[in-house]
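We include the pair:
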Amino acid sequence: MAVHKLLVDDFEDANYSLLAIHSDIEDYRLAYFLNQNLAIRLVRTKEDLDFTNSTASFSVFEWNDNALQTSWHLIKNNCLVENSVPISTGLFAESNDHAWTVHSLLSDHASVDYFLKIDNGGGIINEKEVLNTIQNISKISTAYRVDVLQLKSKEHLIFN
């Protein structure tokens, strides 16, 4: 039986755009505003993006445009995880203290709230026009293009 290896370097020349979005609104509201302004149909996936070595999970909205052969993914970058830490001394020795940790999907861009990944199958999408439309949404603080080749953890952006 043949062994097939999948290397992360194989995806370096992937034909997709990655836009960073800074906004403090909930993920479903952002998906709604993007759908309204970009004339797309992002829908929440049944399963969140998670990894076996992490307790964090990241919400994902997707839309496949068959006419233009493109796929759109809105991914939440940060996840707040509650950690229970037992208190070992004192009056409250049998209780647990709760600590919160923020996990980022792409740690080199931890301040980004959401990523919009546009897989340009046919290369028809005008990235500048999409970016200008996103920046004109009142609930979004800022949006900009991220250089995919400079990402340290680009394997987190590979979807099946």
Summary: DSSP finds two helices and ten strands in the chain. Residues 8-12 have pLDDT under 50 and may be disordered. The chain has one domain: 15-149.
